[in-house]
C-alpha cells in the first residue's frame, strides 16, 4: 500500500474538495446573479472620481451624470493609447478589465461602453479566484472545508462588495486583485516542488493587478515583493541560477516602476486635494492651537483662518487659501508633505491616537450614501442596497467600532498565528499560508492610519474599504480555525 506524504489528502478527500470548490463557485455565481444582474441592476453613483479612469482608458461622457444620486452605466468609446496595456505608461490596472469590456461591447455591436459588461468581467475574475482559493486551500477535515466555503460566500459575496463592480471606481479592482494574488499564492505554495519561472511571473502579474488598482495600496509594495522573494528563496537550486536572479530582479524593477509611476501621477492630481484635507480638515479641525500646529508644520500661521474646512466647498467659503489657487499651491502644497504630517503625529502621540479613534468609529461600513440605481430604474434616490447584505449590515451595526477592539482583535490573531507558525516548523505549506495571512494583516493595517493622516476627516469610511475587506478575510480565517479546533475536540 503506498504511503502518503505528511498532510497529503486521500483520493476520496481530494475528490470531495474538487466537488466542494465547484459547489462554492456555483453558489458564488448564484449570489452574483441575484445581487448584480437581477433587475433593476444596482451600481454605485459617481462622486466625481470617474474622470481619472475615463481619461486613461478611452472613455467619455454620453450625458452629464447625476452626481452622487444616480448610477450612470453608458460611456462613449474613445481612442485609447494601447501602449498603456503593456505598462509603458504606468496606468491603473483597471485598464485590463475595462479593455475586455470595451472589446466585448465592440464585438456585440454596441455603440457605447457599459459598466454592466464591466460588472460581468469583474464577476468572472472574482468568482474564478474564489474557486482557486477553495480548490487549493485544503483542510484535513472536509467539514472544516465546507464551513470555510460557506462562510466565505456569506462574507466575501456580500452585496455591498459586489455592487461596486458596476462602476468605474478603483475599489472592485482593489479587492479583486487581492483575491487573485491570494489564489495565485496558494497555487504556487501548493506546487513548491514544481516551481518554475512561469509560476513566479504569475505572482508578479497578480501583484501588479492589486498594487496597480489604487495609489493607496502603494505601501504594500515592499511586503508583496518580500513574500514573492520568500517563495523563490525556498528553492535553493532555483535561486542559484544567474538567469533566474536576473528575471526576478527585472520583474521586481518593472513592478516598482509601474506601481510607483501610478502613485506619482495621482499625487499631482488628487494629491493636491488630499493634502489640503489632511491639514485643514484633519490637523487643524478641533485643534486647541491651530497657529502652533501650523508652525510645527512649517506653514504660515494665517492659514488658521481655514481651519475645519475641506477642499470641496464653494470658493466663497474660503477666506484666503482657496484649494488649487496659485497662492495655496505655492504657500501650502509646495511646503507640505506626507513625511511632515507623519512626523507631526509621531511627535504628538495623543493626537495620533485621537485620530485613530475617529478612524475606528468609521470602520466596518462598506455601504455608502451614493445612489445605487439608474435614474430611470427607481422612483427616487436610493442610497441603500438590500440584496444579500446580511453580513455588512451585521458588521456595521453590531461589530464594535472602537480602537480598543481593533487592537485587541489583531493582537490576538497575530499572537495565535505566531504560536501556530512555531508549532508547524516541519510543515512548510502551512507556514507559507500563515505568512500569507500576515501579509493580508499588514496590507489592512497599513490602510488604517492612512485616511486620517493623509486626508483628514474627509471620506474616511470609503478610504477604509480595503481595511474592511482584509478584516473580513482575517475574520473568516479566525472563525475557520475556531471551528476546526472545536470540531476536532468533539470528534475525539
Automatic annotation (TrEMBL):
Keywords associated with the record: Membrane, Transmembrane, Transmembrane helix
Protein name in UniProt: Dolichyl-phosphate-mannose-protein mannosyltransferase
Domain of life per record: Bacteria
Transmembrane segments: 20-38, 50-70, 82-101, 113-134, 146-163, 169-188, 195-211, 217-234, 246-264, 403-422, 434-453, 465-483
Record carries keyword Transmembrane helix: yes
Keyword Transmembrane: yes
